[in-house]
Specification:
This protein has 113 residues and is of the alpha+beta class. Helix content is 23%, strand content 33%. It has one domain.
């Protein structure tokens, strides 16, 4: 059975200001909890999605994708290898909706140490 993402929020693109704020929040979290890996994190926004990956030996490995629902409310998809597919994932403390910091908690154990 083919799985699909279902739009759960507004179909709004992430603005440049929002993207910069998310990148700052990812960098702050990484500096605090995984300072050795912080420089290797790669982030970008496309449409209503915000992607977090890790650059290893020049190749960006996808880790997760956040989908914008409302202001500071996101759903999380965990990367399924290099297939450009993402599996829905729960946030550790808040369920289906959460923040970028919650997403960082999920991917923290998978960062290349």
């Amino acid at each position: 059975m083919k799985q699909q993402w279902v739009l759960v929020g507004k179909d709004e693109k992430i603005t440049k200001i929002e993207c910069e704020d998310l990148q700052r929040r990812v960098a702050n979290f990484a500096q605090r909890y995984c300072p050795k890996q912080a420089p290797s994190l790669d982030t970008k926004a496309r449409g209503r999605f915000f992607y977090i990956g890790q650059k290893i030996r020049g190749v960006v490995l996808p880790l997760c994708r956040l989908e914008k629902c409302d202001d500071n409310q996101w759903t999380l998809g965990f990367a399924a290898g290099f297939s450009n597919r993402y599996q829905p994932c729960l946030f550790p403390h808040t369920g289906w909706y959460g923040t970028v910091e919650g997403a960082m908690e999920v991917i923290l154990p998978f960062l290349d140490v």
